[in-house]
Design goal:
8-stranded mixed beta sheet; single chain; about 1100 residues; 4 domains; alpha+beta; Alpha-Beta Plaits; 18 helices; Rossmann fold
Length: about 1100
C-alpha cells in the first residue's frame, strides 16, 4: 500500500542532510525514466540524448557529436553524454528535459495468462510448401478490399457505442487522420489495406506518398551513420547484371541465420539506367518465421513510368516467397506502396489464393531519388537528400521487436474495416461480406499515420514534434494528424502532469490546438492515483470499460444477449493526478475485443485477428469515435474542431456507468450521441464538461492544481446548449456515491493439485445473489467486491515479523471473478458439485455450459483483489456468482482462506455541491445556464472529494440519456508554522476515501500499481531554514507498508515568465519530488517493494 502526500509550497524546502529518509536530487526530475534507468550505475559509456531547452541555452561543452536545432519555439540539442554529464546538464536551469533514444518499456498484456483465440492457422511445414507453390502476384485473386464494401453493420447488436447510429448518418471518419504512436502498423492486413494517410499537398515533395514517421531509423541513420537495426534499407549494392531478353539476373548475398549466402536473383529488365540496386528487408519476423531464417531481398529500380511513379528510382520489389525471383512479386511505388503476397486459401486450408494477403513486406513510404529528402530529416536533422537510389524506407510492424503487434492492434481499434472473419465465434451472426467482419473500428474511412517503433528507439521529443508539425515542420498545413493516439505510459513518475514529458505535450497542444491528443490511463489499478505519464491536462484521457465476451475467449455463453458490458475493468488506471486533475475523461472498451495482428505471425490473412485488451485498446477506439466527431464537425462548420471542442463533445455525449468520476470520468463514449452533437442536430453539449473548483492564490490555471478551503464558497456557470430541433426539458441534480451496507463471506480453497487452472472456468464458485439468496439491497448502484488472503500464503518465503524474508516473486496468487448466470436449460442450477469427485472444487462438467459470463474480474499480483459491478439488480439474468481461480499455484498445494466483502454503494445528494436550479427548459438551438456552487464546510477534512452533476432529460423526449459533469475538489490547508492532521472523522463513505488505503500492490506488475492519495498544503511565507515534517501512521503491522512522498516547487521554463516555453495555463511553478521515505528513493521495478519497517511510523522531511 502506498500513501502519497503532495505538499504545495512557494519555496524550495530545506531538507536535513542527516535525515534517515531520502532527499531527492530534483535535477533528476528532468531526465526521462528510461534514461534514468540507463545511468543508474555510473559509467563512462556515452548515451545518446536529446536536450530540450530554451533557445538561449548553449550546448554543454562536453557534449559529443553535437546537433542543434531550433524548432517549435524551443531548442533541441542532440549528442552523447556520460551518466555524470547527464546529471550535470540536468542541473542547468535553462534545460527543460533530457530525453532518451530508447529502448522503452512496451505495454504488457493486462492478463498475460489469456492464451489468445484458438483458430487453425497453417503449420510451418505446410506453409513452406505453400510458399514454393505460390501463384505470382499478377495471377492471384483480386483483393477482397478492392471489392465494394457492404454497408458497415456492427455485428454485436447490443454494442453500446452507438456506431450504427453514427454510420447511418454517413459519418465514418472520412478525411480524418489518426496518428498511432506505437510499434508501427502492418498495412497489409486486409482490414487495414488502404487506411494509410497520404500527403495530399501538390506543392509538397512528398505529394501522394504515405505519411509515416520512424525516428528510431532517422536517429540511427543520422547520428550513428548506419542503417543496421533500422527500417531503412541500404540499397547501395549494385551487382553486375546479365540481361537476357526481358529478364535480368544478378548475384546478391543475403543472410541465412547469421551467415551470408549468395544467390542469383531474377527480375524484369525494366531499369532506365540499367543499374539495379539490392538490399535486405528489415522485418525479422518475415525472415525467421516466414522464410525459414532467410532474409528477404529487396530490389530497387528506376522504372520508366515516371508520370505515375516519379523520377529517378521509384519502384521496389520484396522477395516475399524466398524463391530468388522478383518477377512474381508485387511492384511497390507511389500510390501502391504496400508489399504483400496471397499464398494461402484459408477456406480450403491449403496453398492457393483467396483474395486475402497472407505475407507482408510492409509499406514503402520513401525512395531516395536524389531530390526528395527523407520526410522530416530536413528540419529535424538538418540533413540533405540521400543519393539517388541509395535508400528505401519501410513502415512495418515487426512482431519480434519490443511491443510486438501492439501498433497494428491499436490501428485496428480505430479504423479496421471489417474485411476478415476467419475463426469468428459461434455467437457472431453469419458473415454478410466485406464490412461485416470480426474487427470493426469506429472510423473505417479515417486514415492512419503510422509512427514507430516508439519502444525500440528514437528520441521521445521527435515523435511529438512530428505529430504536431507533420512532414514540413510547420503546424496546421494539412500533413499532420487531426488526432494522436498514445497507448503507452510510464508508471514510475510520481509527479505525473508536472513532468517534462507531459509538459512537452501540453506545449505542442498549445502550439497546434487543432490537434487532439488522446492518452490511455494505464492498466495499474484497482488503486487510485494510478494514471501513467504523460498526463497532459490538454489531452483526452481514456480508461477501460468491459465487454465480455465478443471473442469467445472467456467463460461460456450461447448468445449475444449474454454479453456483458458497462463496468470499469479492475485494472483501468484511475485518478486523481498529481496536478490535482480528475485523471479520467471518458472510458471505452478495453476489456476486451477483437483486433488485427500482423500477417507474418498469422500467415493467413482471413484469420489475422486476435482478442486483446487494455487501456491500450480503449484509447484508439476513442480516437476512432473522435474521428467521427471531427468529420461531422467539419461538415457542419467548415473547419476542423480544436482539441477543446473534441473533448467537450466526447464528454458531453458519454453514457453514465454509475461509477465514481475518478474511474469513469463522464462515462463511456457514444458515437451516435457524439456525432449528433458535432453536427449540431441533437443532444445537449455542456461547457465546461467538468469542474475542479477553486484556484491557486486567487488565479485559475487550467494546468495547475485548483485548491479550495474550508468555509469558502466557489461558483461556476455551466453553459448547456440544446443542439436539437425540439425544446428539451432537463432535471438537474447532483450526487455522490455512499456506502450503505456490505456482505462478508469466505471461499476456502483446497490443498489439491486437481484445480483446472482454466481461464474459462473458476476453481471455486458460490452463489452470491439469486434463488434463495438475495443480499443485494434495493437501490444499489455499485458493488465493490474485494477478496483478501494472508500474505504468508502469497509469499510463502515470508517469516512472520522478518522484513528481510519479504522477497518477490510471488509463489501463490488468485483471481476474483464475478459472474452473471443465465439459466439457459431451466434446471435452476449452474453448479452441481455432486457431479465430481472432490467436494468444493469445480471440476469438468459441474458447471452448465453456455450459462455463465463474467461481469468483471480482478487479478493484480497481490493479496488484495477487487472487481466492480454497476447496477447489478437490473443487469443480471438469473443469479450472480462469485468465483476464485488459482492463477499461480504454489509447488506444494495449500488450503487458503479467502475472505470476500461485497460493499454496496448508492447515489445520494452531495452536501457540498449545489445547482442553482432543479430543472431547465431550453428552446431548440438555444443555451441554458446552471449556476454551480461548491460550498466547503468549515470542518471539511484535508483531502479530495468527488461528485457528479447529472442532467437528465424528461421521459419521452428526443434525447433520453443523461449527461454527467464530473466535479472534484482538492480541500487544502495553509501551512504557516502549524500542523495539520489528516483524518476522516466527517469523511463521506464513498469508494474513494482520503484516510483509507487498499493493499493494491502488484509484484512483478506495474510501477504505478498501489493505492495513492494527494494532500495539498500551501506555505506562503516560510522563514529561512524552516522544515516541513510529515508523520504517517497506520493501524496494521508487518507486512503492511505506507510510503510518504513530499512534492514541492522547482523552477522550470514552462512556468517562468519571459521564457519562450512560458504560458499562463501552466501556472506559477511546477512540483517535483523533493523528499520521500526510503522505499521510493530508488525504484526497483514492478510495484516498488520497500524494506518494510518494524514500526508503523514514517518521518520523511
Amino acid at each position: 500500500m502506498i500513501r502519497w502526500i503532495s505538499c504545495l509550497a512557494a519555496l524550495a524546502f530545506s531538507l536535513s542532510p542527516n535525515s534517515s529518509f531520502s532527499q531527492i536530487d530534483t535535477s533528476r526530475n528532468k531526465i526521462s525514466p528510461e534514461l534514468r534507468a540507463q545511468i543508474a550505475v555510473p559509467s563512462e559509456a556515452r548515451h545518446p540524448v536529446t536536450i530540450i531547452c530554451s533557445q538561449d541555452t548553449e550546448p554543454p561543452k562536453y557534449l559529443k557529436q553535437i546537433q542543434v536545432m531550433d524548432v517549435a519555439g524551443m531548442r533541441l540539442i542532440r549528442g552523447f553524454l556520460t551518466s555524470r554529464e547527464i546529471l550535470k546538464a540536468a542541473s542547468d536551469p535553462g534545460v527543460e528535459g533530457i530525453f532518451d533514444f530508447g529502448p522503452r518499456t512496451p505495454p504488457s498484456p493486462p492478463d498475460p495468462d489469456v492464451p489468445g483465440i484458438q483458430r487453425k492457422l497453417p503449420g510451418h511445414e505446410e506453409f513452406q510448401k505453400a510458399l514454393k507453390q505460390a501463384p505470382p502476384f499478377s495471377e492471384a485473386k483480386k483483393l477482397v478490399e478492392e471489392v465494394s464494401i457492404k454497408e458497415n453493420k456492427d455485428w454485436w447488436i447490443k454494442n453500446p457505442l452507438g456506431l450504427e447510429e453514427a454510420w447511418s448518418l454517413g459519418i465514418k471518419g472520412a478525411g480524418v487522420k489518426i496518428a498511432i504512436i506505437d510499434t508501427g502498423v502492418d498495412f497489409a492486413n486486409p482490414d487495414l489495406l488502404g487506411t494509410q494517410a497520404r500527403d495530399l499537398n501538390p506543392a509538397s515533395p512528398h505529394y501522394g506518398w504515405p505519411i509515416c514517421f520512424d525516428d528510431r531509423s532517422l536517429s540511427t541513420y543520422y547520428m550513428s551513420h548506419t542503417t543496421e537495426g533500422t527500417w531503412f534499407v541500404d540499397t547501395s549494392s549494385t551487382p553486375p547484371v546479365t540481361i537476357n531478353g526481358g529478364v535480368g539476373t544478378a548475384n546478391f548475398a543475403i543472410y541465412h541465420g547469421d551467415q551470408t549466402e549468395t544467390h542469383t536473383y531474377t527480375f524484369n529488365a525494366e531499369s532506365v539506367s540499367g543499374i539495379y540496386r539490392f538490399g535486405i528487408h528489415p522485418d525479422t519476423k518475415l525472415k525467421k518465421d516466414v522464410l525459414n531464417d532467410y532474409s528477404a531481398a529487396v530490389l530497387l529500380v528506376d522504372h520508366p513510368n515516371t508520370a505515375q511513379r516519379g523520377v529517378g528510382y521509384n519502384t521496389v520489389y520484396v522477395d516475399l516467397d524466398g524463391d530468388y525471383d522478383f518477377t512474381d512479386e508485387k511492384p511497390c511505388f507511389r500510390g501502391s506502396e504496400i508489399s504483400f503476397r496471397d499464398i494461402w486459401d484459408s477456406a480450403a486450408n491449403t496453398a492457393g489464393s483467396d483474395g486475402y494477403p497472407d505475407v507482408s513486406g510492409g509499406m514503402v513510404y520513401f525512395i531516395a531519388n536524389g531530390v526528395r529528402n527523407i520526410p522530416t530529416a530536413d528540419w529535424l536533422y538538418q540533413a540533405s537528400p540521400p543519393a539517388n537510389g541509395s535508400l528505401v524506407a519501410f513502415m512495418i510492424n515487426d512482431k519480434n521487436e519490443r511491443g510486438g503487434n501492439h501498433g497494428t492492434f491499436c490501428a485496428s481499434a480505430a479504423v479496421a474495416r471489417g474485411i476478415i472473419n476467419g475463426g469468428a465465434p459461434g455467437i457472431k451472426p453469419p458473415f454478410q461480406g466485406p464490412g461485416d467482419g470480426m474487427v470493426q473500428g469506429p472510423a473505417p474511412e479515417a486514415k492512419i499515420i503510422a509512427v514507430g517503433n516508439y519502444y525500440v528507439g528514437g528520441t521521445l521529443a521527435n515523435f511529438h514534434l512530428f505529430a504536431t508539425l507533420g512532414y514540413d515542420g510547420i503546424e496546421n498545413t494539412g500533413d499532420e494528424p487531426n488526432l494522436v493516439s498514445m497507448s503507452y505510459g510510464a508508471g514510475d513518475i510520481d509527479n505525473d502532469g508536472w513532468d517534462p514529458h507531459s509538459r512537452l505535450i501540453d506545449k505542442m497542444s498549445l502550439k497546434a490546438p487543432q490537434i487532439t491528443w488522446l492518452k490511455s490511463t494505464g492498466n495499474g489499478a484497482p488503486g487510485y492515483s494510478t494514471c501513467t505519464t504523460p498526463s497532459s491536462f490538454r489531452a483526452v484521457t481514456v480508461g477501460a470499460c468491459t465487454s465480455y465476451d465478443t471473442c469467445d475467449e472467456y467463460d461460456s455463453l450461447t448468445s449475444t444477449d449474454q454479453i456483458l458490458h458497462g463496468d470499469i475493468q479492475s485494472w483501468s488506471g484511475s485518478g486523481p493526478t498529481a496536478t490535482g486533475q480528475i485523471g479520467v475523461d471518458v472510458v471505452a472498451h478495453g476489456a476486451w475485443g477483437g483486433g488485427d495482428v500482423t500477417l507474418n505471425e498469422a500467415k493467413d490473412g482471413w484469420k489475422a485477428w486476435d482478442q486483446w485488451g487494455g487501456t491500450s485498446r480503449s484509447c484508439p477506439e476513442t480516437a476512432g469515435v473522435a474521428a467521427l466527431v471531427c468529420q461531422a464537425y467539419k461538415q457542419a462548420n467548415g473547419v476542423w474542431p480544436n482539441s477543446k471542442a473534441v473533448r467537450r463533445i466526447l464528454m458531453s455525449s458519454a453514457i453514465d456507468l454509475n461509477y465514481d468520476i475518478l474511474r469513469q470520468g463522464s462515462g463511456r463514449i457514444h458515437a451516435g450521441r457524439a456525432v449528433n452533437l458535432a453536427r449540431q442536430s441533437k443532444g445537449i453539449q455542456v461547457n465546461p464538461p467538468s469542474w475542479v473548483p477553486g484556484n491557486f492564490r486567487g488565479t485559475e490555471y487550467p494546468g495547475y492544481a485548483s485548491l479550495v478551503y474550508p468555509g469558502q464558497a466557489y461558483q461556476k456557470t455551466v453553459d448547456v446548449w440544446n443542439q436539437g430541433a425540439q425544446p428539451i426539458s432537463l432535471q438537474v441534480r447532483d450526487n455522490q456515491l455512499e456506502e450503505f451496507g456490505h456482505t462478508d463471506f469466505e471461499i476456502n480453497t483446497l490443498a489439491t493439485s486437481a484445480e483446472k487452472l482454466d481461464i474459462r472456468q473458476p476453481d471455486y464458485a458460490t452463489l452470491f445473489h439469486g434463488p434463495g439468496k438475495n443480499p443485494i439491497p434495493a437501490g444499489t448502484d455499485l458493488i465493490v467486491f474485494e477478496a483478501i488472503y494472508p500474505f504468508e500464503d502469497f509469499d510463502t518465503n515470508y517469516q512472520t515479523g522478518d522484513p528481510g524474508s519479504i522477497l518477490p516473486p510471488r509463489e501463490n496468487s488468485y483471481r476474483l471473478l464475478i459472474y452473471d448466470w443465465t439459466d439457459v436449460n431451466g434446471n435452476g442450477k449452474l453448479f452441481d458439485d455432486t457431479r465430481g469427485s472432490i467436494p468444493g472444487l469445480v471440476e469438468d462438467g459441474e458447471m452448465d455450459a453456455g450459462e455463465f459470463m463474467r461481469f468483471n474480474y480482478g487479478y493484480n499480483n497481490g493479496t488484495s483483489l477487487r472487481a466492480f459491478v454497476a447496477n447489478p439488480l437490473s443487469r443480471y439474468h438469473h443469479g450472480i456468482w462469485v468465483g476464485i481461480q488459482h492463477r499461480k499455484p504454489v509447488s506444494t498445494p495449500v488450503a487458503v482462506k479467502i475472505r470476500i466483502r461485497a460493499t454496496y454503494f448508492r447515489e445520494v445528494d452531495c452536501p457540498w455541491l449545489q445547482a442553482g436550479v432543479n430543472s431547465l427548459l431550453i428552446p431548440p438551438g438555444q443555451h441554458g445556464y446552471i449556476q454551480l456552487n461548491a460550498t466547503i464546510p468549515p470542518n471539511m477534512p484535508l483531502g479530495l472529494y468527488t461528485a457528479k452533476l447529472i442532467l437528465q432529460p424528461d421521459p419521452l423526449q428526443q434525447v433520453t440519456d443523461s449527461t454527467v459533469i464530473p466535479v472534484m475538489i482538492n480541500v487544502a490547508r495553509t501551512l504557516e508554522n502549524s500542523n495539520h492532521l489528516i483524518h476522516g472523522v466527517t469523511e463521506s463513505a464513498g469508494p474513494f476515501r482520503n484516510t483509507f488505503l487498499s493493499g493494491d500492490f502488484s509484484w512483478e506488475g506495474r510501477e504505478e500499481s498501489g493505492d495513492g492519495r494527494f494532500f495539498f498544503l500551501d506555505c506562503k511565507s516560510p522563514s529561512h531554514g524552516d522544515y516541513l515534517l510529515t508523520r504517517t501512521t497506520w493501524e496494521d503491522t508487518l507486512p503492511t507498508d505506507i510510503d510518504t512522498l513530499i512534492m514541492g516547487p522547482e523552477k522550470d521554463s514552462f512556468t517562468t515568465p519571459g521564457s519562450p516555453d512560458y504560458h499562463t495555463e501552466f501556472g506559477p511553478i511546477p512540483w517535483f519530488l523533493l523528499a520521500a521515505s526510503e522505499a521510493l528513493a530508488v525504484p526497483t521495478g514492478g510495484t516498488r517493494l520497500p524494506p518494510v519497517p518494524t514500526v508503523t511510523t514514517r518521518w520523511p522531511h
